[in-house]
From TrEMBL:
Keywords assigned by UniProt, alphabetized: DNA-binding, Repressor, Transcription, Transcription regulation
Residue ranges flagged as DNA-binding region: 36-55
GO BP: negative regulation of DNA-templated transcription; response to antibiotic
InterPro entries in the cross-refs: Homeodomain-like_sf (IPR009057), HTH-type_TetR-like_transc_reg (IPR050109), HTH_TetR (IPR001647), Repressor_TetR_C (IPR004111), Tet_transcr_reg_TetR (IPR003012), Tet_transcr_reg_TetR-rel_C_sf (IPR036271)
GO molecular function: DNA-binding transcription factor activity; transcription cis-regulatory region binding
Protein name: TetR family transcriptional regulator
Gene3D superfamilies named among the record's database cross-references: Tetracycline Repressor, domain 2
Keyword Magnesium belongs to the record: no
Length: 221
C-alpha cells in the first residue's frame, strides 16, 4: 500500500518541472510497475490532487517525461559529414534513453507521436534522407537503426543481468567445466563494457549504411 504523504507542501509551490523531477526519482526507486501518483505525491509532500492540477492523468505525466527526454536529444549539425551525423544521432538517442534506466523500457516502445517527439523524429528521418537514400531506404534504415538502438537500450537497462532466471541452474564449477565459452564471454558482458560493445555494433551498422549509400548513388541495389 502506498505510504501517505507526511509533509504537505505549501499551496501554490508545485510546478510541472518539480513534479517531473520527482517522478523520475520515484520511477528509478520503485520501477515502472511500482510507480503511482500516490507515491509521487508522498515524495513531493502534497496531495495527489495537486499533481492532477498539472497533469490530468498518469498518461499525461509520462508523455511529459518522454517529451522532456526527447527535447534533450541533440540533432547533429548538417555541417558534419553524413556518417558522423548518423553516428552522433544514434549515440544521442542511446544517451537520452538511458539517462533514467528504469524509465527506458517505456521510452523505447513509446509511439513518439506527440508534437515535440514528432519534431525530433522528423529531423532524424530527414538525416537519413540527407544521405541520399531516397524515401524507401531512408525509412527502412531508420527502422533498422531503431531495432539496434532499442535492443541495446533494453539490454543495458533491463536486460540479461536483470531479467528472470531459470529455476534449474548450475554451480560455478559446472559452469566452468561444461560451458567454458560462456565463462570466457561473460568477462565482457558487464556494464563496464557496454560502451565498447555498442560502438563496435554501431561502426558495423554505419559501414553497411555507407555501402548501401554508395550503391544507391551509383544506381545499384
Amino acid at each position: 500500500m502506498d505510504a501517505p504523504s507526511k509533509k504537505k507542501r505549501p499551496r501554490g509551490k508545485l510546478s510541472r518541472e518539480m513534479i517531473e523531477d520527482a517522478a523520475f526519482e520515484v520511477i528509478e526507486r520503485e520501477g515502472l510497475s511500482g510507480f503511482s501518483m500516490r507515491k509521487l505525491a508522498a515524495r513531493l509532500g502534497c496531495e495527489a490532487m495537486s499533481i492532477y492540477h498539472h497533469f490530468p492523468s498518469q498518461a499525461h505525466l509520462y508523455e511529459a517525461l518522454v517529451d522532456r527526454q526527447m527535447s534533450g536529444l541533440v540533432i547533429p549539425d548538417d555541417s558534419l559529414p553524413w556518417r558522423e551525423r548518423a553516428r552522433v544521432g544514434m549515440q544521442e538517442f542511446r544517451r537520452v534513453a538511458t539517462e533514467h534506466p528504469a524509465f527506458a523500457p517505456f521510452i523505447v516502445v513509446y509511439r513518439m507521436n506527440s508534437p515535440p517527439c514528432l519534431a525530433k523524429l522528423n529531423a532524424i528521418i530527414g538525416l537519413f534522407e540527407d544521405g541520399g537514400f531516397g524515401p524507401e531506404l531512408s525509412a527502412r534504415l531508420f527502422r533498422a537503426a531503431g531495432y539496434y538502438l532499442m535492443g541495446a537500450i533494453l539490454d543495458e537497462t533491463a536486460g540479461y543481468a536483470k531479467g528472470p532466471s531459470a529455476v534449474t541452474t548450475v554451480s560455478n564449477e559446472e559452469l566452468a567445466r561444461d560451458y567454458p565459452s560462456v565463462v570466457k564471454a561473460g568477462a565482457y558482458f558487464g556494464a563496464a563494457d557496454f560502451d565498447k560493445t555498442f560502438e563496435l555494433g554501431l561502426e558495423m551498422f554505419l559501414d553497411e549504411m555507407e555501402r548501401v549509400r554508395e550503391a544507391a548513388r551509383s544506381g545499384g541495389r
